[in-house]
Amino acid sequence: SQTIHQWPATLVQPVGSPLSLECTVEGTSNPNLYWYRQAAGRGLQLLFYSIGIDQISSEVPQNLSASRPQDRQFILSSKKLLLSDSGFYLCAWSPRSGSSPQHFGDGTRLSIL
Amino acid sequence: QQPVQSPQAVILREGEDAVINCSSSKALYSVHWYRQKHGEAPVFLMILLKGGEQKGHEKISASFNEKKQQSSLYLTASQLSYSGTYFCGTVWNAGNMLTFGGGTRLMVKP
Description:
The complex is a heterodimer. By secondary structure, chain A is mostly beta strands. Chain A is 0% helix and 57% strand. Chain A is built from no helices and 11 strands. Chain A has strands at 3-7, 10-13, 19-26, 32-38, 45-52, 55-58, 64-70, 73-78, 87-94, 103-104, 108-112. In chain A, the strands form 2 sheets. In chain A, strands 2, 4, 5, 6, 9, 10 and 11 form a 7-stranded mixed beta sheet that branches. Chain B contains no helices and 11 strands. Chain B has strands at 4-6, 9-13, 18-23, 30-36, 43-48, 54-57, 60-65, 70-75, 84-91, 99-100, 104-109. In chain B, strands 2, 4, 5, 9, 10 and 11 form a 6-stranded mixed beta sheet that branches. A 5-stranded antiparallel beta sheet of chain B has the order 1-3-8-7-6, with no helix packed on it. The chains are: A mainly beta, B mainly beta. The A-B interface holds A 42-44, 46, 49, 59, 90, 98-107 and B 2, 29-30, 32, 40-44, 47, 49, 87, 89, 91, 94, 97-103.
């Protein structure tokens, strides 16, 4: 069966520091991969999605970037964090074909001080 | 454009029923429903791919009215475990991304 791993679970970072969140999927090949952000008590905002290695689409302009160096690895990065980057970051995967359900990792709760 | 969910919040007693609606301003290709418990990641419930389709999962079911560009989630004889935030996600064309609604907070009390 397919599993998705996301780490770390929680992170506290100072303003201006760099960020790297990692997500890996097991048990499937060629998945679509997604990064979402959720502010406290709010909905899910799609940040990036990827249909293949080095194929990244950005949905929202920001100081974040994403990379997909391997088929089942998706990384969210920032060179300098802002206070507004605080939130719950979720990685998700879906099968490549059609309108398929997305399955989420456990998320990373990021607090910026 | 984000689909609109209503109501934004609902409080139920155990055993009561609830309906959550998800409306789109554009024709829908498919509708997804997810539940997120506090502090956890969203969990997929069901997907509706055709107008008129209805699906069920235990005592939770959903319908998709293609003409009204709307989907509804029905929770029957609610249990404490149903508490959480329910999100609909809509796809307008095959190949388009899923766009989530703002969520409906459901609280079931004993």
